[in-house]
Amino acid sequence: MEAEKFKDHPFFLKIADIRNKISGIQNLPIQYNEHKEYILNSLDYIEVRLKKFTDISFIDEQWINNLNNNTLQNILNQINQFLSDNNFQHLINIKNQLYNLIKTINIDFPIPLKSEDYFQGIVNNFKEKIESDIQSFIQDLSQKIKGNENQIQQLNANLNALQQNYNTTNNNVQQLITKFNADFTQFQDQAKQKLEEQINNIQKDSKQILDELNKKLEEAKKIVNVIGNVAISHSYKETAEYHKKQANKFRCISLGFMVVSVVYLIVIIILTTMHHNADWWQSLIRIVAATLFIYPAQYAAAQSNKHRELENYNRKMELDLAAINPFIELLDENKKKEIKEKLVERYFKPIEIEKVSDNAIPTTLLEKILQMLKSFKN
Predict the structure, then answer these.
(1) Residue 98 CB: number of other CB atoms within 10 A?
(2) Could you count the other beta carbons within 10 Å of the beta carbon of residue 375?
(3) Could you write out the DSSP letters of every residue in 255-317?
C-alpha cells in the first residue's frame, strides 16, 4: 500500500474522532475511569503500532478498509449510544472490541525480531545527544558565571540594600498598622459612645413622647367621659324642662277651673241675696253645678303633681351626673370603677311614679250633694 494513501486513510481519521469523543466524556464513576484510560491508550497504541512499527508495504488496502468499516464503525456506534443513554455497558463493549483489534494487528503484522536493537540504537543516540547538550550547557554556564561574578556581587549588594529597605519599610508599615489600630480603637470607642448617647436620647425622647401620649389619652378619656356625662345630663335636663312645662300647664288649668267655680258660686250667692223671692231650689242646683268644676281642677292638679315629681327626679339625675366626676376625681381608678358600677343600677332602673289615688277625685263630695238634693226633693 502506498505511504501517502496509508497516511491519509479514513481509518486514522476515525481513530481521531473516537479519541475526541472519549476524551469529552466527564464525571464517570471511578470504576469506569479505568475503561476510559484503557480505550485512549489502546487508540494511541494502534495508531503508533501501524504507523511506526509496521511495514506498510505488507498492509492490504482491503484489510484496513474492513477494520475501518466494521470494527471502528461499531466502536463509534457504541460511543454514540453511550452518549445518548449513559449505559456503561457500551464502554465495556468498546474496550473488548479494541482488545480484539490490537490482537488482530499483532497477529497479522508481528513486530520484527530486530526491532529491539532498533529501539536501543534510538535510545543510545538520544542519550548521547542529551549528554553532549548538557556538557555544552555546563560549559556555557561556567563561562557566564565566571564572567558575571561582579554582577553577582552587585546583585548581592543590591539584595542587601533591598533587604534593608524592606526592613525599614516593614518597620514603617508596622508603625502605621499600630497607629491605625490605635486610631481605629479610639474611633470605635467614640462611635460607640456617640451611638450609646443617641440611643439614650432616643429612648428618653421616646419615653417622653409615650408619657405625653398616655397623658393625652387620659385627658381624652376624661373629655369623652365628660362629653358622655354632659350628653346624658343634657337629656335629663331636657326631660325635666318638658315635665316642668307640663306641670305648669296643668297647674294653670287647675287654677282656672277653681277660679271659674269660685266666681260662679259668688255670682249665684249675690243674685240669690238680691232677689227676695228667688227660687232656692234653682239656686241649689246652680251651686251643685258650680261644684262640678272641682273635678277637672282636681285632675289637672294631680297631673301637675305627677309632672312635678318627674321634673324633680330628672333635675336630681342631672345634678348627680354632673357632680359625680369631680366628686370621685381624687380617688384611685379601682375605687372609681366600683362607685360607677354601683351607680349604674340607680341610673338605669325604671322610674317609679306615685299613682294618683281615687281620693284625689272629689266623688264623695258629689255623692253628698246628690244625697242632699234627694232629701230636699222628698
Answers:
(1) 22
(2) 8
(3) HHHHHHHHHHHHHHHHHHHH-TT--HHHHHHHHHHHHTTHHHHHHHHHHHHHHHHHHHHHHHH
29-44 as b/e: b if 16+ CB within 10 A: eeeeeebbeebeebbe
Q: Which three-class secondary structure state does DSSP give residue 117? A: helix
| DSSP SS3 for 48 | helix
Triad 253, 254, 257: Cα angle to 5°: 85
| Cα Rg of the chain, angstroms | 68
Closest by CA to 28, choosing from 75, 74, 92, is: 92
- The rounded percent of the chain whose pLDDT value lies above 70 is 72
What are the contacts of 57-61 at 24+ separation with CB within 8 A?
57/1, 58/109, 59/1, 59/6, 59/109, 60/1, 61/1, 61/5
Distance of CA 341 to the CA centre of its chain: 43
Q: What is the mean pLDDT of residues 177-200?
A: 89
| Residues 216-267 pLDDT 10s | 877 776 665 655 555 566 677 888 888 888 888 988 988 888 888 788 778 7
Distance, in Å, from the CA atom of 91 to the CA atom of 79, rounded to the nearest integer, reads: 7
Calculate mean pLDDT across residues 207-212. Answer: 88
Separation between Cα atoms, residue 300 and residue 255, nearest integer Å: 9
Amino acid at 93: N
Q: Which of 35-44, 115-124, 252-261 has the lowest mean pLDDT?
A: 115-124
What does the DSSP 8-state code read for residue 56?
G
